[in-house]
Amino acid sequence: MTHGMRxxxxxxxRGGGGWRDEAARYALxxxxxxxxVTFIYAGxxxxxxxxxxxxxxxxxxxxxxxxxxxxxAVPALVDLALKNPPGFGYAIALGELAVGIGTLLGLLTRLxxxxxxxxxxxxWLTVSWAADPYYYGNDLAYLMAWLPLVLAGxxxxxxxxxxxxRPRRQTGGYR
Length: 175
Description:
The chain contains 8 helices and no strands. It has helices at about 20-25, 30-50, 60-70, 75-80, 85-105, 110-125, 140-150, 160-165. The radius of gyration is 22 Å and the shape is elongated.
């Protein structure tokens, strides 16, 4: 009887790999699709809601920010938004739209995911900070969901992968 290396282990380095290796390669794709679609929807929802983009009134970004100001972790951030609530609303909506499109297409994915994480962090520290217990605040979960994409990017089925696979033009005499 010999001892040593297992022969039943699947490895993608041998060419074929198994279904587990294939599943692992595509593991971030559902997260990328979910976050991309969700942020596109959130941005479009804000941009098309005439009540949201107002300084005051039911459903306005201004009233929402005034309501959370005293319970937020960073009141100074809310005060900054309150200097121009419609401008802040447009910045958030356009940011969500850009992040969602970049994530869904896999274009500059790490940068888009970082933008999504920063939007989620700012919303967690302001709008959903007072959620009790803390896990009722969905912005914290979104923040955590963005982190794997910040770290790994979009290695498959993305414009980043297409751009990476293109031959690079050499600019100098050395390779």
